[in-house]
Amino acid sequence: MRRRTSFGNRPVSYLRKAQVALLCLLAVATTCLGRQGQPQPQARRATAARLKVIQLPEPVTSSAVSLEQTLLGNRNMQPPGNQRLDLPKVGQLAWAAQRAMTTPSSSATGPAAVAAEALAMRVYFLLPDGVYLYNPVDHTLQQMNDEDMRDEMAAGVSNQTGTPIGGCQIIIAAAPQEFSKRYGTRGRTAMLLEAGRMSQSIQLQTIALGLTYVGIDGVDSAAARRVARLPRNLEPIYAAFIGYPAGQAPPSAIQDATPQGGRRALLVVAPQGFQEEELMATKRALELAGVQVMVASTRLGQLTGMLGGSIRADLLLNQAKADDFNAIVFIGGVDTMIYVNNSIALNLARQATTKRKVLAAIGTAPSILAGAGLLRGVRSTAYLSEQDRMVQAGAIYTGNPVEKDGLIVTATGPAAAALFARAILDGLVEAQ
Q: DSSP E strands: which ranges in 175-323?
C-alpha cells in the first residue's frame, strides 16, 4: 500500500503548491508595506521643487563708513524690528560673515579660493520665507525649508521671553570633527576663534549698513539645531538677530510711497573744507535706500574736502529750490561757517521748514539752522564747538549723537553719520 502524507485529506504535491503561493503573497505584501512607509518619489520631487536657490547681489567692497565709526556705533544698540531685509543687505551680511574671509584676494574666486576652515563652518539665515544655508563659493542661499522659524529660534536659543526676532537671523555653526582632523587637540580652540572672527565681521557690517542687532554668544545648541533642523554633526555657536531699529520704517517704505520710484535729497556742502566722511556716509546710505541725491555748493565741478577727498557739485546753491527736493541736508566741515550768514543758504533752510521738507544738518552745520532762526525750542545737537551758538539761538542742545525733532534732524559728526541718515529716512516717511 502506497504511503501517503496528508494535510486534511490533500496530497503532498497540493500542499507544496499552497506553500509556494503563500510565500509569494507574503513577499508582495512586505514590499507594498515597505513602500507605504517611505516617501514616494513623486512626493519627494514635489517637495524639492518648492525649495529654491537665491543668487545674492554682488557685495559692495568699499564704503565711506570707517572702522572707527562702526566701532563707535556698536555701543548702546537699539533692539531690531522684524521687518524684512532686502537681498542686497542680506547678501552683504553673508559676504561679511564668510566669503570676505575665505577669498584671499579679489582675483581668487571659485572653490580653490575657499579656505578649509570656511568649509568646516556653516552660516544659516532664518528669513520670513524659510531657513537658508549660505554657500560662500558661489554667493548663494540654498533654501532648506520654507517655514518662518524666527519666533521659535528667538525663544529657543536665548532661553528668555521678549527677545527681538529681527528681520534676519544668522546662525553660525561648525563641524568639530573637521577641525579636529586639521588641528588635532587644538581643533576646538581653532573652531571657536573662527566663529569669533565671523561674528565680529557680522556685527561691524550690520552697523555699516545702518542696521542694529542682538548677539547671542551662549547659544542653546540643542534648541538651535532642533529649530533650524541642522545636521547632528554641526554645533551651533553664535546667533545674531538683525534688523532695522525697532519702531523705524525700513527704506522700502519710502520707495513704495513714491510714484516716481524715489525721493530726492539735496546735500549742501562748502566749496572746500567740507567733512567728506559726513558727506559720503550720508550720501551712500540715502542712495542705498533709493533716494536720489544731488550735491549743491557755491561753485560747480570738483570740490575738495578737509581730508583731501573730493566730490562733484551738481547744482549751484543759488539755483536750488526746496520745492524740487524732499530733504535739504547741510554737511559740516571747517569751512561750513561761510553759510551761517549766507542769505541764500538761510532762505533755503527756511523754505524747507515752511514747505514741510526734511531739514537736516550734521557736525558744524546745525549752526546754519540756528542762524536761520529755526532751532528755537527745538531739541538739537551738533559738534561741541557749536553749542554756545545754538543755545544763544534758543536751541535745546542735548549733545546726543543724533536728534530728530519733527522734521528737523541734527547730528554731532562723522561717527553719527549712519544714525543721521536713518533719521533723515524716517523723516521722509513722516513727511510724505
A: 212-216, 235-243, 264-268, 292-297, 301-304, 310-313, 315-316
Residue 113, pLDDT > 90, answer no
Read off the pLDDT of each residue in 15-22 and give the average, rounded to a whole number: 54
Locate 297 and state its grid cell: 555748493
Question: Which set of grid coordinates corresponds to residue 1?
Answer: 500500500
CA distance 367 to 201: 37
> Which of the pair, 394 or 66, is modelled with greater confidence?
394
pLDDT at res. 50: 64
Nearest partner of 242 among 69, 115, 105, 125, judged by Cα: 125
pLDDT at res. 395: 94
Across 128-143, average pLDDT: 90
Cβ atoms of 389 and 309 within 8 Å: the answer is no
224 contacts 171 by C-beta, under 8 angstroms = yes
Selection from 86, 87, 91, 85 nearest residue 60 by Cα: 91
- Where are the chain's structural domains? 53-243, 251-431
* CA distance readout (Å), 236 to 44, 222, 296, 369, 390: 28, 8, 50, 51, 51
Nearest-Å Rg of the Cα atoms of the chain is: 31
- pLDDT over threshold 80, residue 353: yes
Q: Whose CA is closest to 267, among 253, 249, 280?
A: 280
**Burial annotation 179-207 (CB, 10 A radius, 16+ → b, else e):** bbeeeeeebeebbeebbeebbebbbbbbb
Shortest CA distance to 282 belongs to which of 329, 237, 334? 329
- Specify the CATH number for 53-243; select among 3.40.109.10, 3.20.20.70, 3.40.50.10700, 3.40.50.1110: 3.40.109.10
Rounded distance between C-alpha atoms, residue 177 and residue 175, angstroms: 6
Q: What pTM does this model have?
A: 0.49
Query: CB under 8 Å to 409, separation ≥6 — which residues?
Result: 358, 359, 360, 361, 402, 403, 420, 423, 424, 427
The CATH architecture one would assign to domain 251-431 is: 3-Layer(aba) Sandwich (3.40)
- Residue pair 104/149 in contact (Cβ under 8 Å)? The answer is no
